[in-house]
Amino acid sequence: MMNKHFLIILVVTLFLGLIPTSLLASNSQDRLPPRDSLSFLAGYPLAFYLPETRLGLAAAGIYTFRSNQNVINTASNIQVLLGYTLNRQLLIFTSYSIFRKENKHFFGGELGYYDYFYPYFGEGNDTRLTSTEDYFVKFPRLRSRYLFKNSRDFYLGPALHLEDYNIFQTEPNGILDNNISNGSNGSSVMGIGLSALADRRDIQFYPTQGYFLDASLHYYRGSYDSSQVDYLRFSMTYSHYLPVNDKCILALNLFQEIVGDSAPLQEKALFGGPKYARGYVIGRYRDNIQTVLQSELRFPLFWRLKGAAFLSVGNVADRFANLTQNVKVNYGVGLRAVISKTEQLNIRIDYGRSNEGGNFYVTIGEAF
Description:
The chain is mostly beta strands and 368 residues long. The chain has a domain at 108-364: Porin (Beta Barrel), CATH 2.40.160.50. It is built from one helix and 18 strands. The strands form two sheets. A 16-stranded antiparallel sheet has the order 1-2-3-4-5-6-7-8-9-10-11-14-15-16-17-18. Strands 12-13 form a two-stranded antiparallel sheet. The chain is globular, with a radius of gyration of 20 Å. The two termini are 30 Å apart.
């Protein structure tokens, strides 16, 4: 049944996703337009699929633009999505990455509200797939940072993260119902920190060469179970892009997270999802530390379609010495449908597989 649904989603997504390129984009030419008109605007219906949502329908919009006409590889973009899934989940959010004052300032983040549910398998890297229980949450989220350019393509500045996590339903007599994990009854967090960004990609949405580094260190004051807790969180993603030949690109990625012991369950390092360790449901494993190494070969097919093949190795653990225990491997293939030739922005359709089975992902933009 899932395969049948996926084929329907694939056809609908490709059809709906490609329409705006010709109808609503300000620059839909195949060639690169003049630098004084580098912008793209589209609004479209979208069918998407994630393991934790199943089929979702959304109204989505994206606007890309540039504040510096002489720099074409750093595009500002604002994305908006209002979605609803067959699992009765509601997603309302906008994400933004804006370069200002001739790219000397960067303003980025996310503002959203989610009525969602997640699977919970416990903590550690050896939890059982059969030990899952679902918990239902409602939460607003704000992530924001304002970075200043310190040298060529390197930005540094303050960052803020606010979240109020209301868990309103758990499985009776489960782990969360018995309040065994931190934040089982919900939690709120406020994190302030420092964020760094280095971007030497030749194309922002579909790089063919260069590198990208995004790192942050936050200090959190959180509360759950009528107590206040403090902890630190470090996260870093580094991607490098190598042209194999005139058509193929090898993309490499390292993702690292380190979270303090007292962090509530939703702030732990979550393994899996549409970006890291595809093939595992997000949160399939969670703990204090996460390391994921990924590689992806990207290549053209025909018309507006491209292909991809990926492989990743990773794990979570309570400390670094245990990362070598029960290492996880996943792999898969993907299809890309170009919705903006100017920006090289794609609809991404991936099938990731692990030793626990496989999952489909349909979304916008590359995994890294």
